[in-house]
Amino acid sequence: MSETPVKQQSTAAFYGQAVASFAVAMAATAIGIFRLNADAWVRGFLAIAVLYLVTSAFTLAKVIRDRQEAGQIVSRVDQARMEKLLAEHDPFEKL
């Protein structure tokens, strides 16, 4: 069979940087909305809009990841079938 692909995994530093970046962005947005010179309902609307945007971004990222993983699984199954056919094929067999 063919070589097994190495599973790519992000480093702890990359993970930490991503979490820290997300936390800073959310905190800055929350402070900006809180300090905004507007009525409470406007700040509330903006806060809900930001939360909706964040959840939508997480959902989109998950859907894209799931689709990519499903494509890799289908590709592996197709590759295994092809390797099985090639292994069973005898070019010198009489027809």
Automatic annotation (TrEMBL):
Alphabetical list of InterPro entries matching this protein: YiaA-like, YiaAB
All copies of domain YiaAB two helix, residue ranges: 14-66
The keyword Transmembrane helix belongs to this UniProt entry's keyword annotation: yes
Coiled-coil ranges from the UniProt annotation: none
Keyword Transmembrane: yes
Residues that span the membrane, as ranges: 12-34, 40-61
Residues in the signal sequence: none
Keywords: Membrane, Transmembrane, Transmembrane helix
Name of one Pfam family that matches: YiaAB
Top-level taxonomic group: Bacteria
Protein name: YiaA/YiaB family inner membrane protein
Annotated organism of origin: Streptomyces lonegramiae
